[in-house]
Amino acid sequence: MSLEDHLYPLLRIYGRSPRWMRSLSGRVYRQLPEGVRFGARYGEFLASAARFEDARPEDVEAFRLGKLKETLLHAVEHCSYYCAKFAAAGFNPRKLQSADDFQACPLLEKGDIQDNRDGLASQALTSRERLYITTGGSTGVPVGFYLQKGVSRPKEQAFLETLWGRIGYDKSSRLVVIRGQVTSNLDEGRIDDYDSTRDWLLLSSYHLTPQRAGEYLERIEKFKPDFLHAYPSAVLQLAQLLATQGKQLSVPLRGILCGSEWMSMDQKKLVEAAFGCRVYRWYGHSERVVLAGEGRTSPNFYFFPTYGYVEFGPPDAEGLQEVIGTTFDNMAMPLIRYRTGDYVRVTRSNLEFPWAAVSEIAGRGQEFLVTSGGRRISLTAFNMHDSVFDSFVAVQFFQEEPGRAEFRFIPNSRFDPSQIEPLRRRLAVKLGEDFDLTFASLPELEKTSRGKHRWLVSKLI
Predict the structure, then answer these.
(1) Any domain includes 201
(2) pLDDT value at residue 328
(3) Which of 340, 361, 382 is the last residue before a domain boundary?
(4) How many domains does the chain fold into?
(5) Structural contact between residues 435 and 381, judged by C-beta atoms closer than 8 angstroms
(6) What's the angle, vertex CA 403, arms to CA 402 and CA 404, rounded to 5?
(7) pLDDT tens for residues 251-279?
(8) Does one domain contain both 144 and 59?
(9) CA–CA separation, 236 vs 246, rounded Å?
(10) Average pLDDT over residues 423-448
(11) How far is it, in rounded angstroms, from Cα 346 to Cα 13?
């Protein structure tokens, strides 16, 4: 198990510690060997991420089927949900020989995870080997699941480093991060913090206003980063503010790393023009099922064949297909044929790697709440990875005027009205002092045309 896994329960205490204490402990932590910080399997996953870039397609497919069968056999032997589900569908993973055989395996919905968490969890692992995480994802449907300690964290670290390495990132790179950090919930509060565990400067996503754009520019130039690591919504807003005020960075960036939100090609080009460097995009999930990123030169998204097993549903009227994924490596709770609810445009031409690729991620949008002071808050910032949303079937923000919104929810059997006030305080930290939030329990929430729950219904646009 990695040191990160051991320290994870103390993360909130660390975040509340004085800055000098965090700085000192972080610097000590950064000096430890990677195998200690990230776990013994970190090196294995680095090698796995780099495999098959120049392989024959048939070799890639043979590997994928082997890993898939490994996951399926573990699931049917140690997860009661899959044992019953496979039997009911007449699917025998021991007879799997091809991708066509896999089509008999039943799909997994988000609701199945909500209703069958214990049955999906592997009985081969103890509770000490599991890490509980929740996410609302891009749909507003809270899902709680288990990752595997000593596996999921080093794997994600290794694969993300490999993605970023395609545009020059290495372990000595300095990053400025604008990804929902709460540096202060006051309008005039400080906009920066320092993560000494990684030598990253953290800038608030909540104070990006025309009045304070100059402060962001000053902090970035003083830190002299190699890369910006930001929500697309945040870096777009910063680019627009700088352009409006006729300002630009005086320090050159090697690249901008953008994940967790959808970003169109037009937006990518706008940001690249504003900062004079490449914007690198990738696509993944908190569930750690599949992962894709742009190539070294190509803007297509390529799905790692060694990360998870990706499939695409049938095309809709617009030619878009749903991403369906199956877990590799995480045996704490393998997710098999998991419907992500995200839609993509598959491409098979001019591929840089012999992997499944898409030219467009169409299922995620940059959604914002707008405060009375004009600040925009990305909905991605509300993916709080603990049990805070466990009592809801689905949640949604509804906004008709700046600075006011309604948090709408469908309660489940675990809901108690006494949970509202603690949740209000948690959300208030993210929203800041210029925002008023009310709560409403509803039997149903508004959905998209494809039937997806929506995180935000905004009447401001």
Answers:
(1) no
(2) 98
(3) 361
(4) 2
(5) no
(6) 95
(7) 999 999 999 888 888 889 999 999 999 99
(8) yes
(9) 15
(10) 88
(11) 44
Q: Is the dihedral of CA 163, 165, 167, 172 positive or negative?
A: positive
CA distance 147 to 334: 9
Highest averaged pLDDT of the listed ranges 35-39, 246-250, 324-328: 324-328
Q: In this structure, are 296 and 150 located in the same domain?
A: yes
Amino acid at position 427, single letter:
L
Of 361, 386, 406, the domain-final residue: 361
Residue burial 397-426, b: 16+ Cβ < 10 Å; e: rest: bbbeebbbbbbbbbbeeebeeeeeeebeee
Contacts of 248 (CB under 8 A, 6+ apart): 242, 274, 275
Q: Can you read off the two tokens belonging to residue 301?
A: 């998204």
Q: Is residue 91 assigned to a domain?
A: yes
* Per-residue pLDDT tens over the stretch 91-149: 999 999 999 999 999 999 998 998 999 999 999 999 999 999 887 655 566 788 999 99
In this structure, the strands spanning 357-361 and 392-401 are unpaired
Q: Is residue 300, in this structure, part of any structural domain at all?
A: yes
329 and 426 belong to one structural domain: no
Whole domain around residue 413: which residue ranges? 368-458
Taking only the tens place, the pLDDT of each residue in 159-193 is: 999 999 999 999 999 999 998 776 665 667 788 98
